[in-house]
Amino acid sequence: MIKIEDIHKSFGRTKVLNGVSLEVKQGELVALVGGSGSGKSVLLKHIAGLLRPDSGFIYINGTEITGLNKRQLELVRKEFGFLFQGGALFDSLTLFENVAFPLTEKLRLPKEEVTQRVLHYLDLVGLSGSEEKYPSQVSGGMIKRAALARSLITEPKIMLFDEPTTGLDPQMSLSILNLIRSVHDRLNLTGIIVTHAIPSVFKFTNRILMIYEGRIYFDGSPEEFKRSEEPIIRRFLGEEVLD
Ligand SMILES: Nc1ncnc2c1ncn2[C@@H]1O[C@H](COP(=O)(O)OP(=O)(O)O)[C@@H](O)[C@H]1O
Ligand SMILES: [Mg+2]
Question: All domains of the chain, ordered by start, with CATH?
Answer without folding.
Answer: 1-79+157-243 (3.40.50.300), 88-155 (no CATH)
